[in-house]
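Rotation project, supervised by the postdoc (A.L.). Task for the rotation student: set up a whole-complex structure prediction and record inputs and outputs verbatim in this book. Inputs entered:
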Amino acid sequence: MGDSMSQDREVPADGLARLFGAYREACPDPEPGGDFMPQLWQRIEDRRAFSYSLKRLAKGVITAAAAAALAMALFLAPQHRASPSYLELLAAGQSHDNIADTEIVQSSYENPR
Amino acid sequence: MLVEPELITRAREGDDGAFNQVVQAYRKRILGTIARLIGRPEDVEDVGQEVFLRLYYSLDQLRSPEVFEPWLYRLTVNSAYDYLRRHRRRPEARMADLSEQQVIMADAAAGAKLDHEEQRRGRIRDMVGALMSAVSEQDRILLTLKEIEGLSLKELEKVYRVNENALKVRLFRARQRVLKAFEASAGKTAGAGV
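Outputs recorded:
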């Protein structure tokens, strides 16, 4: 190795190529362990279970939100009807004014000066 | 290809048995590539499982079985890159960081246990590991695929999805940076020896 290192310093680019070649030989493909496949399938199942529970949670949240929206709509709808609208109030006020006007006119006829 | 295209088609359609066969055919090669990419034998199987996990959940996106291998390499590169980024800040003593005296002592201690050939291999692994840790994760992965795994430019084009000229520029720059680190480490070792 000492010899090869000194050669590497003399011609860095070639030395680097040789070093990479030697590294390829020094690092052969490792044999997978006996529990590689069981662990892989366990991870696949864990991910599947996680995404399934996430989907269920999302569905639950959507259903709850829809139910809450419906309940609020049902609760607010009668209140909305009970309170008169602006136009209804205006119409009611106008009819009251007319009656008052009639009274004034009537009283002026009844008590002429 | 290590497997028949129809096996990949079946795996893509959700056949777990076919997927199992694909993993068994490719796992040794992929584990070897990962070992040389990340340089930490203790984490190789974990990263390898991550690659095949990603494969399982994205196999339906594969356009055709013919592009399976570059695509698997792409998943491997992405997983190795994620691993290297996560472990970037974990300092690790390497041979290049030690003084010559420490290297001699480490060698002497190791020599009692290992034979000469294994010592030589260990030193090569340490040296390349030290060189690769001196450059970015992108340079490390690109150089490993080209110089150590022996992928051609055409294959790298499919893995990286960039054209050949852009790859050549990236490779040239990566080589220059590693050469600089190589010369610096050689100078440092020579300086420490004085």
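Student's summary: Chain A touches chain B through 30 residues (CB under 8 Å).
Supervisor addendum: Helices of chain A lie at 2-10, 12-26, 36-82, 86-110.
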